[in-house]
Amino acid sequence: MKLELRGITKRFGNFTANDHIDVIVESGQVHSLLGENGAGKSTLMNVLFGLYEATEGQILIDDKPVKFNGPGDAMAAGIGMVHQHFMLVPVFTVAENVALGNEDAGAAGILDLEKTRARIREISDRYGFGVDPDAIIEDLPVGVQQRVEIIKALVRNAKVLILDEPTAVLTPQETDELLNIMRQLRDSGTAVVFISHKLREVKAISDTITVIRRGKVVGKADPAASASELAALMVGRSVSLSLNKDKPKLGEETFKITDLSVLASSGQLLLDSVSFGISEGEILAVAGVQGNGQTELTESIMGLMDHVSGSIKLGGKELIGRTVKQIINSGVGFVPEDRSTDGVIGTFTVAENLVLNQYDKAPYARGMNMKPAVMLKNALKKITEFDVRTQGPDAEAGTLSGGNQQKVVMARELSRPLKLFIASQPTRGVDVGSIEFLHRRIVAERDSGTPVLIVSTELDEVVELADRIAVLYKGKLVGIVPGDTPRDILGLMMAGASNEEAESQSGTEGKERA
Predict the structure, then answer these.
(1) Which residues are CB-neighbours of 110 under 8 A, at least 6 positions away?
(2) Which percentage of the chain shows pLDDT scores above 70?
(3) Which residues does residue 469 pair with via DSSP β-bridges, in sequence order?
(4) Alpha-carbon dihedral angle through residues 34, 37, 38, 39, given to the nearest 10 degrees
(5) Cα–chain-centroid distance for residue 163?
(6) Which end of the chain is least crowded, N or C, by CB within 10 Å?
(7) Helix (H, G, I), strand (E, B) or coil at 244
(8) How far apart are the first and last CA of the chain?
(9) Which stretches within 279-385 are classed as H helix?
(10) How far apart, in whole angstroms, are the C-alpha atoms of residue 494 and residue 502?
C-alpha cells in the first residue's frame, strides 16, 4: 500500500503546526520522520490517523484521495498507530485490550474472545513477541505493553504502522528488540512510519528519512549520513554532538541522602531506603525508565512530597521538614520535569519568571517594593545569554514554546550561587543546538564546585553528563556505577539487575572499563 501526504497544513488559530508537508511512504520500508520536539511530527501523524482534521492538503492511498473523520476510518483503511502514551486498560487482559473497539460477538451476542486469543498467538509467534493473551496489562513490562499496542494494530490488518516516539519509555535492550520487530514488519511488507528525535535509532533502522523543522519539511536524508549532518538538518546549523569535559575535581561530600523512603497515600512504597551522596564538583546522574521513583526522589529533596522518612542533608543541615522556600533559600536550584506546570507561571512575563526564586530579595526588591527596571535589565541579559526565543521580556511565558520555557527555567536556576543544583529532564523539548549550550552550562556549574544531580530518561544525556550514574528500578537504588559504564550494562540495571548481575549477563567485566 502506498501512502501519500500531499500539502498537509494544520493550523491552531494563528499557529501553523504543519506547513504544506509532502511525504510518501511505500510498502516494505521504514520511513523515519526526524525532528526536534515540537517540530510538528506528532501533529502530522494525528492528522493522518484521523485525530485532527487538516486545514489544507490531501491524504492519498494508492494514489486515491481519502478522508478520515476519525481513527476508525484510518484503521479501516489499513493505518495503525502506537501512541507515545499507550492506550491500554491496565486491569484488562491482553486479549480484552486487543478486542476493545473491535469486538466480535457471536450469534448469541456474547463476546467471543477465543478468536482474538488465537489471532494474538498467531501474530506473537510470527514475530517472536512472546505475549500471553491472558496476561493482565498492568503486570507486564513496558516493552511488552508496547508489543500489545503493535498487536492491536496488526489484528486490524494494518498495512501502515505509525510508531510515535516509541522508545521513550524503553530500556536500551527493549529498544533493540523493538528495532528488530520493526525490521521484521518491514520485511513482511508492512510500511513503518517511525517518529523520533533520536539520531542513533533513526540511523539504525531507517530506509528513508524525512526531516521536519518548525512544521516544514526541510529535506530528505540518507540513513548513512553522519549524526552531525542529521543534527544540522534538524536545527538549521552545524552543532557539536559531543561534550568535552575535564575530569571532576572532587571536594567534600556536602549532599547526602540516607535511607530515603516515600509512601504513597495508598501505602505503596514509592522510594525504598535510597542512600547516596554527591561531592562538590561532581555530577551524579540518575538513570531509569520513567516512573521508577525519579520524580519522587527530586520532589522529596525539594520538600514537595508527603510521607517521607530518612535523611536529606545539605552542608550537614537536614532538609526534611523544611518548606520549599526554605530549601530554595538554602542554596538549592531546581529544574522540575514538568516545566509548564511547575517551572514557569504562564500568565507572568518572561522577566517575572526569571526572578521567581529571588523576587523578594536584592537587587530585585527593596522592602515590599519590587524593582521593575532591575528585573528588565536581568531579563534582557538572560534572554541573550540563553538564546530565549521570545517577543520580549514582557511577553507572557505561556506564549513561549516548550523548549524556550525550559531555557527560562534553566536561566533562572543557574543565575545565583548554588550549594546544590538539581535538574530533572534538563533538555526535554530543547533543540539540539541548545542542548549543546545547556550541557556546557551544567558542566560549568559542576566545575564551579557545586554538587549536581541530573535525572534524565535520555540515556545518551546521562552518559554524556555523568561522573557517576545511579540507577533506580521500582523505587530502589540498584547500583551506582562510573559514568563510562557500557550502555548494555546500564540497560540491564534499568531492568532491575544489580551491577554484578548486569556485568555477568553482558559478559563485560568492570576491569575492562579501567
Answers:
(1) none
(2) 96
(3) 285, 481
(4) -20
(5) 15
(6) C
(7) coil
(8) 52
(9) 294-301, 324-329, 350-353, 372-385
(10) 10
Report, at the CATH architecture level, how domain 251-331+418-432+449-514 is classified. Answer: 3-Layer(aba) Sandwich (3.40)
What backbone phi and psi angles, to 5 degrees, belong to 119?
A: -65, -40
pLDDT of residue 104: 63
Are 3-235 and 251-331+418-432+449-514 the same fold in CATH?
A: yes
447: left (phi over 0), alpha (psi -120 to 50) or beta: alpha
CA 109 vs CA 104, 105, 120, 257: distances in Å: 9, 5, 22, 59
CATH number for the region 3-235 comes to 3.40.50.300
DSSP 182-243: HHHHHHTT-EEEEEES-HHHHHHH-SEEEEEETTEEEEEE-TTS-HHHHHHHHHSS------
Which three three-digit cell numbers place residue 337?
520535569
pLDDT per position as a tens digit, 309-346: 999 999 999 999 999 999 999 999 999 988 778 889 99
Cβ neighbours around 59 below 10 Å, total:
21
Tell me the domain boundaries of the chain: 3-235, 251-331+418-432+449-514, 341-416
The burial class, CB within 10 Å (0-12 / 13-18 / 19+), for 339 is buried
Q: Provide the pLDDT confidence category of residue 249 given band limits of 50, 70 and 90.
A: very high
**Is the per-residue pLDDT at 105 higher than 60?**
no
The pairs formed by 482-486 with CB atoms below 8 angstroms and a separation of 24 or more are 482/513, 483/283, 483/285, 484/513, 485/513, 486/513
- The arithmetic mean of pLDDT across residues 476-491, rounded, is 93
Q: How many CB atoms lie within 10 A of CB 130?
A: 10
Task: Determine how many CB atoms are found less than 10 A away from the CB of residue 101.
Answer: 12
Mean of the per-residue pLDDT values for the chain? 89
Does the model's pTM come out above 0.90?
A: no
The residues near 437 (Cβ < 8 Å, ≥ 6 apart) are 386, 387
Give the Cα separation of 211 and 32 in Å (integer). 8
